[in-house]
Structure to design on (1182 residues):
């Protein structure tokens, strides 16, 4: 039986549409749900975890409706809001959650220790939650999501506000969970965040699943997507003239005397030529930065290429 | 491994019991408890002052203390303190999501929360009543014997009403405050049968019915004619129905409601 | 016009805690950066400059006003932009800015006119009539700046104006501050813990540490004491590329992601060498971002290097 | 053609004295309150009583000119609206409940939120001192109180006079005007100080409304109880709202009985004491605020 599937699901709040005719099934591995804020990510997740009911269609977890209590047994949810029963310690919180899942006191204690060890919080779990750092709070949230050993783990923006070191550790943790045969759904508003993490990407925008596939497939789809690049150098004019001669460069904008904004396609080829030009001309580039394309921009691009296939 | 862990789940009943205990603890340790204690303290001082003077009859006790201070103010505030906190405070602190995604059926969640609030509210109203009556001396104790059922059922009804607020509104406490302090008083003092829309009307009906042996009756200009009391059993039946209806309403709304914030 | 501000042996205590100790400063009008970590005394300094608190000892004169006696009058000529909060939910943009003008003593109609003018100057024409609770962080930061500028102050005091902004928002805010700093006859004091902010906007800086002025001077002098560091991004197998860089004396620290690294370069480094090496080892260099060194390191060095000279020739004017 | 409009422009007008800034503070406070729908509901409730008295005055005038016999009957039935000082005093007293409710809920918006969410930083970093801010906010609360008491009472007064046959009502009853203004002023001052003090300490709406209810519902109930228990009317002094009413009666020149005369002085002392205590409570709160974190 499939773990989780959306069957022509739409959801609206009053006149506002949150999700528009989405059909998908979540496959084993790590799935990244990518979309900007307001694209429908949280609606999808709330439907999946049974906090909302679809207006049209059905969400099924192991064949049962997601809204029903029995479906929730299979899902562990790590919410995006940073809220706990603040007066408790981390350990007490996880135990409480275990008991709310129906474990007896003794089993709940075992389970709590087990998951605390999994997230690496065993020795720090007795401090009150209010004194935790963002990363530690994130781990406790993760621990409570694992406490009933669910098949599907849903993580809503788990890397938001976590420092780089914390990110690395959490990423490692997700991989360990994957190795133990869990299915994981991670949402994020940055495609780059999924780079090192997801096997499969669901690209969501304006309430619709725009693209799904492996990261490579998505990247390939986006390879031709024009990039915006910022270059700062003291010899901007000279460099601009040289770069204009490249056929990968579609536009150059001179921003002040020492900054260039480039629009390029076929990025790989461009970077190779750029290094070449810089070395040959002896120009010192103080900054070379790809300006992150917003998911909105990618959406527009994908819509465009869907409407006018080349 | 998955199956072994899942098989150790004992079922929704123990989870429900645990939620009940958890809610009870959290509610008891909240600020509301302090406010209730403070109010009861203030009232007690007044009652002590009242009872120091010459001998009093139970009738005077009921009219001057019980109705004026306890029924019109302390009772709704006690119920409000725990009733609205039931679900609205979880929602305010954004912790409701943990309950909503847990494999507990929603009606059971409501039931557990509701019984925790009810237990605490009943403890406060009953203890508060006992304290007030005890401090009122002999007339107070006499009154206590006949009055407690009226207060018990009023507490249940009030609490169910405030639980309903709690399920429906995010700012349940403010709405309930405005209701208890203003709308109840306003409606309760209207002429005709309009006052039957207020919970406190039935409480007073029950008190007048039970206290008739002491000669308690609606006072003030117009008195009984203006009050249009219902007979005790009718009032009691209405309170049962009202309490039950409000409970079912809260249960139903909580079961189908989507908390998307 | 005499000096912008003059602090003579200013010491301030909160109870037993010493927030400022024996500060002597004399500063000419211009754009001045105020650098220091939390608790270094920045906020106390700001409050003294605003005439909100009186220093326990010493005298402070700002724009010719003694802060002890002319606090309110002084605030008519100084604009202060607080770090956060200070938003009144329920008002809209134009009302908020006009209110700020009126509180500074402008007549109502003038305040209204000026509010429109200031908001459009800051590029917020479209958001003027929106409620403040709907503003994004960047917008509300700009709005606060507008409320500070509305009465055309001679001195702008900005407390962490880039806090909580994303890189784009920060760049936009800094560009704005940069143009503000060039207004003739006006000064600004910018408090921040990011050296990059100050570098972009200011010409001179004061470094505070534990309530004392540990460094002051023109920015180019401070800059000279800084290490150059870049964040590199690439595509392809970079083993040889990184080895080549290390050979040139670059200190390379590779991230876990294996496609980016931090490179601390030696003095006199030319960035074209990055590209040359990349070319040679067939690596695609896709990103090269100068990194702002953490302030802490800079001023620890400042403390160490300036300690000796401070003892010999203490407290020269900036 | 000139392009100067896009550049930064100087402004070199004269700045006005700081105390004039109290008015924008008060105005903004009122604006913030009136932007909430809930307060329009409460104001609507306050309007009900006003409309009732308004209609009564109109009805009486109408009937009096058409049917003197009926007029006497109407006078007997609606004996509380007679155009004397008592009419207006009772009207303003009756507005108490709604006013209390309005203030209880407005306290957090006017004062509490500023303290809690850093709005004070905004005010205090301008060309005003803390005391200008306090006065502005007090003015704001005072205006809110007048909006439900003094202003409608004044309108009723004018209406009553205009519906008379000559201007003699205005000429003979100047004392009433003084009474309305005096009572209104005492109400505004007392309540604004008390509300500011409580809101600056409690800040959030729920505890504020609870404590506010304690003062205006619980304590009066207790006072009534104690009065009956000891058969001593002096306990009535615990009811702040009644004390203010007594002072109001004095403003209207309507103190007739010895009983009221005896209570007048203690009532004044209590009201003054409340004001004084409130001020004492306000001072440390306002001083403690740090503008820069």
């Amino acid at each position: 039986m499939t773990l989780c599937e959306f069957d022509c699901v739409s959801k609206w709040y009053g006149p506002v549409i949150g999700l528009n005719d989405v059909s998908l099934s979540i496959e084993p591995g790590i799935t990244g749900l990518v979309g900007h804020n307001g694209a429908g990510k949280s609606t999808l997740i709330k439907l999946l975890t049974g906090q909302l009911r679809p207006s049209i269609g059905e969400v099924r977890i192991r064949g049962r409706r997601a809204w029903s209590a029995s479906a929730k047994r299979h899902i562990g949810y790590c919410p995006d809001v940073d809220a706990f029963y603040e007066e408790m310690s981390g350990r007490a919180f996880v135990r409480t959650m275990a008991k709310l899942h129906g474990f007896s006191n003794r089993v709940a204690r075992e389970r709590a220790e087990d998951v605390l060890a999994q997230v690496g919080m065993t020795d720090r779990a007795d401090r009150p939650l209010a004194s935790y750092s963002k990363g530690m709070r994130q781990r406790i949230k993760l621990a409570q999501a694992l406490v009933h050993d669910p098949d599907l783990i849903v993580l809503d923006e788990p890397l938001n506000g976590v420092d780089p070191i914390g990110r690395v550790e959490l990423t490692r943790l997700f991989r360990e969970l994957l190795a133990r045969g869990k299915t994981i759904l991670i949402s994020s508003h940055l495609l780059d965040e999924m780079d090192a993490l997801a096997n499969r990407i669901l690209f969501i925008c304006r309430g619709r699943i725009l693209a799904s596939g492996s990261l490579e497939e998505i990247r390939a789809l986006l390879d031709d997507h024009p990039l915006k690049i910022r270059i700062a150098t003291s010899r901007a004019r000279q460099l601009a003239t040289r770069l204009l001669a490249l056929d990968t460069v579609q536009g150059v904008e001179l921003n002040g005397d020492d900054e260039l904004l480039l629009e390029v396609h076929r990025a790989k080829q461009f970077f190779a030529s750029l290094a070449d030009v810089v070395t040959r001309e002896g120009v010192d580039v103080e900054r070379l930065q790809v300006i992150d394309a917003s998911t909105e921009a990618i959406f527009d691009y994908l819509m465009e290429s869907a409407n006018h296939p080349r | 491994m998955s199956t072994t862990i899942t098989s150790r789940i004992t079922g929704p009943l123990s989870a429900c019991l645990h939620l009940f205990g958890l809610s009870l603890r959290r509610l008891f340790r909240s600020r509301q408890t302090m406010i209730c204690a403070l109010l009861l303290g203030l009232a007690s001082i007044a009652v002590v002052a009242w009872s120091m003077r010459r001998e009093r009859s139970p009738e005077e006790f009921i009219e001057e203390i019980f109705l004026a201070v306890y029924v019109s103010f302390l009772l709704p505030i006690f119920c409000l303190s725990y009733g609205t906190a039931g679900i609205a405070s979880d929602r305010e602190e954004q912790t409701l999501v943990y309950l909503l995604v847990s494999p507990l059926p929603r009606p059971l969640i409501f039931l557990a929360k509701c019984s925790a609030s009810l237990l605490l509210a009943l403890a406060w109203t009953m203890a508060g009543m006992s304290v007030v009556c005890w401090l009122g001396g002999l007339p107070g104790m006499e009154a206590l014997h006949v009055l407690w059922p009226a207060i018990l059922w009023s507490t249940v009804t009030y609490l169910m009403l405030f639980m309903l607020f709690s399920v429906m509104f995010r700012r349940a406490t403010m709405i309930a405050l405005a209701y208890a302090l203003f709308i109840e008083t306003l409606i309760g003092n209207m002429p005709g049968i309009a006052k039957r829309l207020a919970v406190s009307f039935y409480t007073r009906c029950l008190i007048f019915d039970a206290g008739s042996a002491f000669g308690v009756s609606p006072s003030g200009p117009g008195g009984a004619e203006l009050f249009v009391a219902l007979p005790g059993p009718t009032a009691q039946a209405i309170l049962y129905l009202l309490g039950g209806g409000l409970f079912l309403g809260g249960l139903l709304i909580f079961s189908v409601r989507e908390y998307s914030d | 016009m005499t000096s912008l501000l003059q602090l003579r042996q200013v010491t301030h205590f909160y109870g037993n805690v010493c927030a400022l100790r024996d500060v002597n400063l004399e500063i000419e009008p211009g754009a001045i950066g105020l650098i220091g970590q939390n608790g270094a005394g920045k906020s106390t300094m700001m409050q003294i400059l605003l005439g909100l608190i009186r220093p326990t000892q010493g005298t402070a004169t700002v724009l010719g006003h003694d802060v002890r006696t002319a606090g309110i009058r002084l605030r008519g000529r100084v604009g202060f932009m607080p770090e956060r909060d200070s938003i009144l939910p329920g008002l809209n943009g134009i009302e908020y800015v006009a209110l700020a003008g009126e509180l500074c003593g402008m007549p109502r109609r003038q305040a209204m006119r000026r509010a429109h003018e200031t908001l459009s100057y800051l590029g917020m024409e479209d958001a003027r009539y929106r409620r403040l609770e709907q503003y994004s962080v960047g917008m509300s930061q700009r709005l606060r700046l507008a409320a500070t500028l509305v009465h055309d102050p001679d001195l702008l005091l900005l407390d962490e104006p880039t806090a909580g902004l994303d890189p784009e928002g920060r760049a936009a805010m800094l560009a704005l501050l940069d143009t503000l700093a060039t207004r003739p006859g006006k000064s600004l004091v910018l408090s921040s813990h990011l050296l990059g902010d100050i570098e972009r906007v200011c010409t001179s800086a004061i470094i505070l540490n534990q309530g004392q002025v540990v460094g002051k001077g023109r920015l180019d002098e401070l800059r000279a004491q800084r290490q150059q560091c870049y964040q590199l991004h690439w595509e392809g197998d970079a083993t040889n590329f990184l080895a080549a860089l290390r050979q040139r004396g670059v200190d390379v620290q590779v991230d876990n992601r294996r496609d980016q690294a931090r490179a601390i370069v030696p003095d006199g480094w030319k960035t074209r060498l990055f590209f040359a090496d990349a070319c040679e080892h067939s690596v695609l260099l896709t990103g090269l971002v100068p990194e702002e060194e953490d302030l802490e390191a800079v001023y620890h060095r400042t403390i160490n290097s300036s300690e000796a000279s401070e003892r010999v020739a203490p407290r020269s004017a900036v | 053609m000139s392009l100067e409009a896009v550049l930064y422009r100087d402004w070199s007008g004269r700045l006005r004295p700081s105390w004039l800034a109290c008015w924008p503070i008060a105005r903004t406070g009122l604006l913030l309150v009136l932007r909430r729908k809930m307060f329009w509901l409460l104001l609507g409730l306050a309007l009900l009583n006003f409309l009732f008295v308004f209609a009564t005055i109109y009805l009486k005038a109408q009937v009096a000119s058409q049917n003197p016999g009926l007029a006497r009957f109407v006078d007997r039935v609606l004996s509380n609206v007679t155009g004397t000082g008592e009419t207006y005093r009772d009207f303003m007293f009756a507005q108490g409940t709604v006013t209390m409710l309005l203030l209880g809920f407005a306290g957090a918006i006017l004062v509490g939120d500023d303290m809690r969410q850093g709005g004070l930083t905004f005010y205090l970093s301008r060309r005003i001192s803390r005391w200008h801010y306090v006065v502005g906010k007090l003015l704001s609360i005072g205006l809110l109180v007048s909006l439900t008491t003094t202003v409608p009472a004044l309108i009723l007064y004018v209406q009553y006079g205009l519906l008379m046959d000559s201007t003699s009502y205005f000429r003979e009853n100047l004392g009433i005007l003084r009474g309305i203004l005096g009572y209104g002023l005492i109400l505004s001052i007392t309540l604004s100080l008390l509300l500011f003090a409580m809101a600056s300490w409690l800040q959030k709406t729920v505890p504020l409304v609870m404590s506010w209810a304690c003062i205006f519902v619980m304590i009066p109930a207790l006072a009534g109880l104690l009065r009956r228990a000891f058969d001593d009317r002096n306990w009535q002094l615990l009811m702040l709202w009644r004390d203010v009413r007594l002072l109001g009666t004095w403003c209207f020149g309507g103190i007739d009985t010895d009983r009221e005369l005896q209570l007048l002085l203690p009532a004044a002392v209590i009201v003054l004491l409340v004001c004084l205590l409130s001020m004492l409570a306000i001072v440390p709160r306002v001083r403690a605020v740090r503008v820069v974190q």
About this structure: The two ends of chain B are 35 Å apart (CA to CA).
